Amino acid sequence: MDKEQHFEVLRESAAEVKELQDHLEAIREKEAALQADRVATLEKLGKARASRFTRMTAAIESGVPKAQVARELGMDRTNLYKLLGGKDNAPDA
Predict the structure, then answer these.
(1) What is the DSSP letter of 92?
(2) pTM here?
(3) Which residues of 7-34 are buried (b: 16+ CB within 10 A; e: fewer)?
(4) Cα Rg for the chain, rounded, in angstroms?
(5) What is the pLDDT of residue 10?
(6) Which residues are within 8 A (CB) of 83 and not within 5 positions of it... i.e. 6 or more apart?
(7) What is the DSSP string of 46-91?
(8) Region for 74 from its dihedrals, namely left if φ exceeds 0, alpha if ψ lies in -120 to 50, beta otherwise
(9) pLDDT per position in the chain (93 positions), as tens?
(10) How far apart are CA 80 and CA 67, in angstroms?
(11) How far apart (Å, rounded) are the C-alpha atoms in residues 92 and 37?
C-alpha cells in the first residue's frame, strides 16, 4: 500500500467511527426526549388519579353505591376499596 492508499483507508475508518458516534448521539437525544415525556406523563397520571379519587369519593359520599362507582370506573370493587384505604370494605347491598 502506498501513502495515498493508507490515507484513504484512514479517512474511511474515521468516517465510519464518526457516523457511529453521530448515531449514538442521536439515540441519546431520543432517550432524553423519551425520558422527559415519561416524567411529564407520570405527573399527568398522578393528577388524573387524584382527580379520579376526588370524583369517586364525592360520588360515594353522595350515596352512589360503591359497586356502581367501581363499574363506571371500569375497576374491580376490591381495587376501589384499596383506593379508599380499606375503609368500609363491606359490599353495598
Answers:
(1) P
(2) 0.68
(3) eeeeeeeeeeeeeeeeeeeeeeeeeeee
(4) 29
(5) 96
(6) 53, 56
(7) HHHHHHHHHHHHHHHHTT--HHHHHHHHT--HHHHHHHTTTTT-SP
(8) left
(9) 899 999 999 999 999 999 999 999 999 999 999 999 999 999 999 999 999 999 999 999 999 999 999 999 999 999 999 999 855 544 443
(10) 9
(11) 40
